[in-house]
Amino acid sequence: MSPPSIDTSLPAVASGYPQFVERKSRDARALLLAAAAVSVALVMARSLWTPWLTALILLIALLWRAKNEEKGATKTLLRRLLPVNAFMIFLWVSLPFTVAGESVHWLGLDWSRVGLHLAALSTGKANAIALVFMLLLTPLGIHGVARALMRLKLSPKLTWLFLLTVGTIHRLRDHFATALRAMKLRLSPDATLRQRWDGYAAVLARAFVQSALRAETLQKAMRCRGIDPASGALPSFDTKRWDNADSAMLFVALALAIALAVFG
């Protein structure tokens, strides 16, 4: 007797993952390849104006799009840039004082010109690349990106790793927010620094336990649905066919990437 057919569509497999509204006007592969091409060109840029001008243009485009979308989209966009620029602060604090070269005296300190240039260049590149992916890949959502990776013949195991990692990060973020909020409500205002650090350690330890439990639960759920990530099998999708508009968009992205690489 043959086993019953099982619905292995990705939204069912990845239940609980952050969801996005998918706009199927473009092929996911075209958007992913375009984002990758422009990002590689931005990484190769050496002048300051190339990444910063690109980031400014993309930011204006995204703000304009967010203005025409649901309420709070602009705030969400700016919040997504915070983690990128939080790391850039570390570069601005370290590079001007650790990179050898000509120095300039300012605010009572000696700043390396090369270090300042590297910090500014890295900040521009990081923001430009982040905005490129926001502009092109946000409409796809997690499932759309996974679909593009699968149709580009990427290793199925790497695609599964991408999906499960994103889901785990999403779950841990929610757990941290809930646990920290509960800790602040229960912690006495007169608590010592040691007590506060003990609370943070408990939250961190519980996060590891929750992560392990989540992985075990997810593994059992996938087996119940007849899915084995170790085998490399991926669910099938109803996908949009590549058309002339996708080719045109990818051609424009490649031309832009070449221009950035040559003149940047």
Present the secondary structure layout:
Elements: H1 10-13, H2 28-44, H3 49-67, H4 73-98, E1 103-106, E2 109-112, H5 113-137, H6 141-151, H7 156-186, H8 193-224, H9 244-263
Antiparallel strand pairs: 1-2
Helix pairs in contact: 2-5, 2-6, 2-9, 3-5, 4-5, 6-7, 7-8
Summarize the structure.
The chain is mostly helical and 264 residues long. The chain has two domains: 27-142 and 239-264, no CATH class; 154-233, no CATH class.
Structural write-up:
The protein is mostly helical and about 260 residues long. It folds into two domains: about 25-140 and about 240-264, no CATH class; about 155-235, no CATH class. The chain is about 70% helix and about 5% strand. It contains nine helices and two strands. The chain has helices at about 10-15, 30-45, 50-65, 75-100, 115-135, 140-150, 155-185, 195-225, 245-264; strands at about 105, 110. Helix 2 (about 30-45) crosses helix 6 (about 140-150), helix 3 packs parallel to helix 5 (about 115-135) and helix 4 packs antiparallel against helix 5 (about 115-135). The longest helix is centred in the last third of the chain and has 32 residues, at about 195-225. About 20% of the residues are buried. Mean pLDDT is about 75; it is low at about 1-25.
Taking all Cα atoms into account, the compactness measure Rg is 23 Å
The number of helices is 9
The CA-CA distance between the termini, in Å, is 64 Å
Amount of helix: over 70%
Overall 3D shape: flat
Observed structural traits:
single chain, mainly alpha, 2 domains, two-stranded antiparallel ribbon
